[in-house]
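Milestone 3.1: sequence recovery, worked example.
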């Protein structure tokens, strides 16, 4: 399991049994995703119970991420599919009507109040596009920019429009409470538009669960720095982002998001279609393997599998090949050169930042086997991970919730164990943990970072070198 880049796998019909979850964890999964767009609370609860049982069997923390559905916008009903041609006029109306070749229902009043002339409406995953010419109280007059077939309940996206309504739907509120009840470690927020959306969710959950902001709208890119600052982690959600952005812009956006998060020290996940062909094939395409490798070279904290593990025919094989790609890239001669590229923000004038920077420097000068950190809330490990050191980071925490959350963080091997009582006990516990996890080697030093007095959150002020 000693990889820097973590694997996040979605559970579903192909992977939801206790036996399958155990096999996936053994194959290399660090964090399991529960997609609240699918399955019932009872089904998800059973999966969480299975994850915790596997965690106990393997004696290592596993993370659980609950992914909220967010506002899914759809057009109304059609008695039969109709085809509209590029250049034609087409109207979306607020009233409930049977869709035809001239108009369709758009049962979302918030869209009428937010859309303006010049905005775009995308339908059916972006396969069709409409240019807004005029917005009335009950009618949106558009010109068909990209024609095609319209039928009932097709999803629509508004790439240039910030909706005034909350992105946290009534369903999300129920799913959010479920996530807190089952002790989820991370809560992913879909269709984030601005930093205000993150503030709203933060007010609801406090610090009880880490917040992952999914970047999948151009409006979120416009407020990216503020969103990342307020989030505990960020996801490059390339599915909807690829619908609302021109295709050629998605790789540029991905790189921008990853590098910003590295500067801020926020964990960042690259998601969607990473090994898409493995839904139906036992091996990925060369392009998909290169896509995973690119995310690893950029320094992403985690890469995610969606339908590949949730509904695909080869979930275990998908995890195994992703694990192999990551390990191969991280073993490449130029990997640490890429990690050494300085995307970090200027270090804060704090003891924690100074010590994290020193630990990284030591790891480049000495044959250090591990940099161990005693951490209560995980902050020390996050500061160390931002430095992208050459050596594994051993995160030892007396809080199981902290250890589980650290399973998403680059380079951190999380360990749940008691805090040190004194300096001698610190060395004994570090040596024991490192030996247990294969991170200790006779005659080679380890770096230990802690805070005095022990057990005090945010008191990182000690760096010590020990040699077993």
């Amino acid at each position: 399991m000693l990889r820097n880049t973590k694997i996040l796998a979605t559970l579903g019909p192909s992977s939801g049994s206790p036996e399958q979850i155990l096999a996936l964890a053994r194959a290399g999964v660090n964090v399991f995703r529960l997609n609240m767009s699918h399955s019932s609370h009872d089904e998800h609860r059973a999966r969480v119970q299975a994850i915790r049982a596997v965690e106990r069997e393997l004696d290592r923390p596993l993370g659980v991420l609950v992914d909220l559905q967010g506002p899914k916008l759809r057009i109304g009903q059609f008695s039969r599919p109709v085809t509209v041609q590029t250049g034609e006029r087409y109207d979306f109306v607020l009233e409930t009507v049977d869709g035809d070749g001239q108009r369709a229902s758009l049962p979302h009043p918030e869209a009428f109040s937010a859309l303006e002339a010049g905005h775009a409406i995308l339908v059916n995953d972006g396969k069709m596009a409409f240019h807004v010419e005029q917005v009335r109280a009950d009618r949106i007059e558009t010109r068909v920019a990209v024609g095609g077939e319209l039928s009932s309940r097709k999803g629509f996206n508004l790439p240039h429009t910030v909706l005034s309504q909350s992105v946290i739907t009534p369903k999300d509120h129920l799913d959010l409470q479920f996530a807190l009840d089952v002790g989820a470690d991370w809560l992913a927020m879909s269709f984030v538009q601005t930093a205000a959306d993150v503030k709203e969710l933060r007010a609801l959950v406090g610090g009880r669960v880490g917040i992952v902001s999914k970047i999948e709208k151009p409006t979120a890119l416009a407020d990216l720095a503020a969103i990342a600052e307020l989030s505990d982690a960020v996801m490059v959600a390339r599915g909807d982002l690829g619908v609302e952005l021109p295709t050629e812009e998605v790789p540029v956006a991905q790189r921008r998001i990853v590098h910003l998060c590295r500067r801020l020290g926020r964990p960042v996940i690259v998601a969607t279609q990473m090994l898409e062909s493995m839904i139906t094939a036992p091996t990925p395409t060369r392009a998909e393997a290169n896509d995973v490798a690119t995310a690893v070279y950029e320094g992403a904290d985690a890469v995610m599998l969606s339908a590949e593990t949730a509904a695909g025919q080869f979930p275990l094989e998908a995890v195994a090949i992703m694990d192999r790609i990551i390990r191969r890239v991280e073993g490449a001669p130029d990997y640490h050169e890429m990690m050494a590229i300085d995307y970090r923000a200027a270090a804060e004038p704090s003891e924690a930042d100074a010590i994290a920077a020193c630990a990284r420097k030591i790891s480049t000068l000495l044959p250090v086997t591990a940099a161990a950190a005693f951490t209560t809330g995980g902050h020390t490990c996050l500061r160390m991970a931002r430095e992208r050191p050459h050596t594994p980071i051993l995160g030892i925490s007396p809080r199981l919730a902290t250890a589980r959350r650290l399973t998403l963080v680059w380079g951190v091997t999380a360990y749940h164990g008691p805090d040190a009582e004194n300096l001698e006990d610190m060395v004994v516990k570090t040596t024991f943990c490192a030996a247990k996890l294969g991170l200790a080697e006779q005659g080679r030093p380890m770096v230990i970072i802690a805070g005095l007095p022990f057990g005090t959150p945010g008191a990182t002020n000690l760096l010590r070198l020990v040699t077993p």
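The first strand starts at residue 6 and ends at 10. The chain has a mean pLDDT of 94.
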